Amino acid sequence: MASPPLYFFLLFLSVVSAVKLPLSAFSHHTDQLVPTDPYLHLRRLADSSIARAQQLKQPSSIKPNEDALSASSAAVVKSPLTPKSYGGYSVSLSFGTPPQTIHFVFDTGSSLVWFPCTSRYICSGCNFPGLDPTRIPRFVPKASSSSRVIGCQNPKCKFLFGPNVKCRGCNPNAHNCTVACPPYILQYGLGSTAGILLSEKLNFADLTVPDFVVGCSILSTRTPTGIAGFGRGRESLPSQMNLKRFSYCLVSRRFDDTKVSTDLDLDTGSGHKTGSKTPGLSYTPFRNNPNVSNSAFLEYYYLNLRRIFVGRKRVKIPYKFLAPRPDGNGGSIVDSGSTFTFMERPVFELVAEEFAAQMSNYSREVKLEKITGLGPCFSISGKGSMTVPELTFEFKGGAKMELPLSNYFTLVGGVDNVCLTVVSDNTVSSTGGRSGPAIILGSFQQQNYHVEYDLENDRFGFAKKKCSP
Ligand SMILES: *[C@@H]1O[C@H](CO)[C@@H](O)[C@H](O)[C@H]1NC(C)=O
Ligand SMILES: *[C@@H]1O[C@H](CO)[C@@H](O)[C@H](O)[C@H]1NC(C)=O
Ligand SMILES: *[C@@H]1O[C@H](CO)[C@@H](O)[C@H](O)[C@H]1NC(C)=O
Question: Which end of the chain, N or C, is less packed with Cβ atoms under 10 Å?
């Protein structure tokens, strides 16, 4: 018999390659779920992550990319980012004259910026933990001298409604129509919002952006606050401000409403040389979705995810899931508006099975998986330490995201059980196939990373970093 080939040894090595971690690796998480029902809260976050994935996968609205906007002046402007109990991160922005400061969900998976608006704003199904739906802060256009309703013939109306927007009662040849841009309705995971577009002043400490298109929502469902869209659409904040790059560092979350914040840096371009890399960051190019007729897919930040490792073992994910196919479906995106990372069922099963295989010393807690919507879950009761394989995402160009334990496992119910913080679902589209991105990298997996969206050079940069001040 011939001697075993080299890969045999590599395979053998892979079996023993795992990180052994004291339970204190979770220390900052141990108090995270004490006050409320821990299972219920995780369940909610898992459900909202799945609903979010379903919406990203089958978006309804059509949004074209057109019309250039003038560049702004100053270099880097900052805005605080804060983790919230509803699962997202909140960014505060200041609109109007005089300025009114409003909190938004920071969302790289959608593009419109909108706020709860007018004293008549209604939010139904908005009983989120730590939030009183009758007291959601709103923007009051009447109190701002710079608020203007966007007209139907204003080119910015097309940001949302496309080049063929219907302006009822307007003579298309006379450009003096006073009809407003039509109301919008947007879907977000389980929630939705409706309102009209305003032109407003967006104020930062050293920079004012005039004529910023912002949604004035008067009716929403299941959305805790307004949403600041940082996607690739024309109406997004980075597009309207013509940002060269933006970056953030998400503080480790406990699903509470801490006051701790970090900076969201918005780089308008005069602060660095074109093409320069931020020291210490690993980069991978963004990827375009080949289906240019599906404008929703053009809003997402697709990554070139090449490999997923559990320990040293490469999980053999078919390429059709990693990269978008010619019809635009499949592929991996990064999304700050999803809490837990989503993987389509076939991908999820491969990853979950590999964790289960390498963690066979621990008893599997299937019941807990059903309750929380996360999985696989394991009992670590009575163990002083646990051995967990590392979870690594490798991108085109070799950039590797070797996740810290607390970015992919969470303690559940005190310190007796842990669950992988990845979700999946069982839906297939009406045509029987799976639509939209197959893998969505959520904010939970981005904690304690310095993350940069380099729009100018069309690439994604990241590095591990302790984000808490
Ligand atoms: C719009 O302009 C046309 C001529 O171009 C004029 O006849 C019409 O009265 C104007 N309408 C308004 C509402 O100003
Ligand atoms: C692009 O996406 C749209 C909408 O999802 C779909 O109808 C169309 O068939 C896709 N185009 C191609 C070339 O597959
Ligand atoms: C798992 O079991 C194997 C074999 O029984 C043992 O060598 C290894 O140390 C165990 N690992 C842990 C973390 O208990």
Answer: N
CB 402 within 8 A of CB 392: yes
pLDDT digits (tens, 9 = 90+) for 294-338: 878 999 999 999 999 999 999 999 999 999 999 999 999 999 999
Instruction: Give burial (CB, 10 Å; 0-12/13-18/19+) of 75.
Output: middle
pTM: 0.85
DSSP state of 134: G
Q: Judge if 330 and 395 occupy the same domain.
A: yes
**Cα–Cα distance, 458 to 345 (Å, whole number):** 30
My answer on whether 260 and 309 are in the same domain is no
Containing structural domain, residue 328: 31-59+279-464
Provide residues with CB under 6 Å of ligand 3: 361, 387
Residue 273 is assigned to a structural domain of this protein = no
CB 94 within 8 A of CB 204: yes
- pLDDT tens by residue, 421-437: 999 987 655 555 678 99
Which residue among the candidates 265, 335, 425, 454 is catalytic per the annotation?
Answer: 335
What's the CATH number where 44 sits?
2.40.70.10
Count of domains in the chain?
A: 2
Tell me, yes or no, whether 259 lies in a domain: yes
Q: Could you tell me the distance, in angstroms and rounded to a whole number, from the CA of residue 145 to the centre of ligand 1? A: 27
Residue of 15, 361, 385, 387 best suited for mutating to test ligand 3, as the one with most atoms within 8 Å of CB: 361
In a domain, 302, yes or no: yes
The ligand whose atoms approach the alpha carbon of 358 most closely is 3
Asked if 107 is an active-site residue, the reply is yes
Which ligand lies nearest the alpha carbon of 386? 3
